[in-house]
């Protein structure tokens, strides 16, 4: 029996990666179509996230350099007003002549991604589709890319990714620093928030929220099936300076046009945050609330020139280990690449995501469609399980050059008579039961195959000291509806 519709975020106050949700409720959406979509989304495990806008022309951080805030990830400008003018003029130089949406879709498939989220508009307000609401858009006839065959890059990308059977996610910023009724020209803009008192200028605020609603409606009605609305800019919220974005109206409109769509009003809590999105961090523990870590392949979300000291590209091994860790804890990974001003990606980053993809494609049975099972993670072992059925998967994470003759599966006692096989090769391996754990023979591998070795266990007797037998789907349902 359902005990409540709400999971209070205090369930994970011990988990620092979820600290931004302290005191904010998670509401289980009772719409069957939303529940089905959420279940399907949790099967997919890996999403391809791309930040792309005119800021790529100069290899800048997305949007944030124009904010008058002394934050640790930005270098102050000598003349912010002059820089803002230069920044807002970047679309005049943005001409991504090498952009090919089908090539992006091929890369997404290679890396093992099953869904795609694109920054249709970041906080700076530059719109990457043919919106009717503003001229500050990639299809503005005054901008150089406007007459290109794929000038409406959002449409081109969504169509190409959909052709690969991927879920489609539209990222859009709630605040818009280019809009005259978010950052009014009547006042200075001291920070990321609206720069006027909404109580004194309700007509300005209505103009802005109507604009936001209309832009979202364009995406919901003119760009095919959309599975996820990924909203950024949590400070634009009714509980902060009365920035009421009319989310009930926006959300209901989305559901009318896109039944079952997942709405992710991130870091806000409440009924329009269908899953949670820790940024650049992996939770230390599993959690019953649906979640997705969004993480960059290099240090940053936006494009950095290859000679930049800021790149710090994660290796294919590091990405693989992080991904496996996330899946074992019940989450998804939304992996970000920043696109270049020409419309492609850095070579080293492409190399890393392709290596990740090679490992995933060889071991996909241990990844796609699985669910978490305690003890989740022990030492260098990560566990997953079939959503339905008895199979459990144990994945051994290996460092470069590391070769092990045997590996212990702590807290995983294989049932008597069960079989264990190497997922990638299908070959069975020898094992022995050791207390409440299992000791297995390790095959020798090289290249991407050596990043981690996944084993399929036909049946387990106990996990984390607890007998396995109760239908795990029922357990998950109970956990989501505490």
Automatic annotation (TrEMBL):
Its EC number is 3.2.1.51. One of its GO terms (molecular function) is alpha-L-fucosidase activity. Keywords: Glycosidase, Hydrolase, Signal. GO terms for cellular component: lysosome. Residues 21-364 form the Glycoside hydrolase family 29 N-terminal domain. Residues 1-19 form the signal peptide. The keyword Hydrolase applies. One of its GO terms (biological process) is fucose metabolic process. The keyword Nucleotide-binding does not apply. Pfam families: Alpha_L_fucos (PF01120). InterPro entries: FUC_metazoa-typ, GH, Glyco_hydro_29, Glyco_hydro_29_N. It comes from the Bacteria. It is an enzyme of class 3 (hydrolase). Alpha-L-fucosidase is responsible for hydrolyzing the alpha-1,6-linked fucose joined to the reducing-end N-acetylglucosamine of the carbohydrate moieties of glycoproteins. Belongs to the glycosyl hydrolase 29 family. This is alpha-L-fucosidase. It comes from Flammeovirga pacifica.
